[in-house]
Design goal:
Strand content: under 5%
Distance between the termini: 53 Å
Largest sheet: none
Order of helices and strands: HHHHHHHHHH
Number of strands: 0
Helix content: over 70%
Shape: globular
């Protein structure tokens, strides 16, 4: 039942979110790989069902609007309730989904109630860094009409500070490596277009 549930969720989000590079199914797969790395390196005792459901449902609310974490959590609670998933599992999943969004969690005082919430938070932020993160920012900017100035501000105000929000040593070390690539990518891009910071 657990395996079928996760596979059903994967099929659903593939259909709903599609192959959007910034927040679609490819993003979820990358977050899953980062999460597995965190669990392995930190030797964490986690519930695979909670982690999988949290990862694959954390962005589904984007099709409904913002704040996407709020809508994702509402959807997850309703969907998992229909499958008669244990209420403790549902609480952990919805908490992880709400907590993964730094701005939403800060604004509403959301604290992690399980290890899986911290893992999702770190893994999601790791995918916002590196060359992939650099491309995701510009992809999102082009999709949503951000100006170049707004895009650069996003790097300075959020992306370059993500390493400060990591929970685990592995995440912090990995984020600093990826951050270097993000900075190099942005600097190279700005140099090529003749733009000065």
């Amino acid at each position: 039942m657990k395996k079928d549930l996760v596979e059903n969720v994967k099929a659903l989000v593939k259909k709903v979110l599609g192959n959007n590079f910034a927040h679609g199914y490819p993003h979820l797969e990358r977050v899953y790989r980062f999460a597995c790395d965190i669990v392995k390196h930190e030797k964490l005792d986690i519930d695979p069902l909670v982690l999988n459901l949290s990862i694959y449902l954390h962005d589904i609310g984007r099709v409904l609007g913002e704040p996407h974490a709020y809508y994702s959590a509402i959807f997850a609670r309703s969907y998992l309730s229909e499958y008669n998933v244990d209420t403790k599992v549902i609480e952990k999943v919805t908490n992880a989904i709400l907590y993964h969004s730094f701005s939403y969690a800060r604004k509403h005082g959301i604290k992690p109630i399980c290890e899986e919430a911290k893992v999702l938070s770190d893994a999601d932020k790791l995918d916002a860094l590196g060359v992939v993160g650099f491309l995701r920012v510009f992809y999102y900017s082009w999709e949503n009409g951000r100006t170049l100035k707004e895009t650069i501000n996003h790097f300075n105000e959020k992306i370059f500070k993500l390493h400060e929000l990591m929970h685990y040593q592995y995440s912090r070390q990995r984020s600093l490596q990826l951050l270097e690539w993000t900075r190099k990518s942005l600097n190279q891009f700005l140099q090529e277009i003749g733009h000065r910071l």
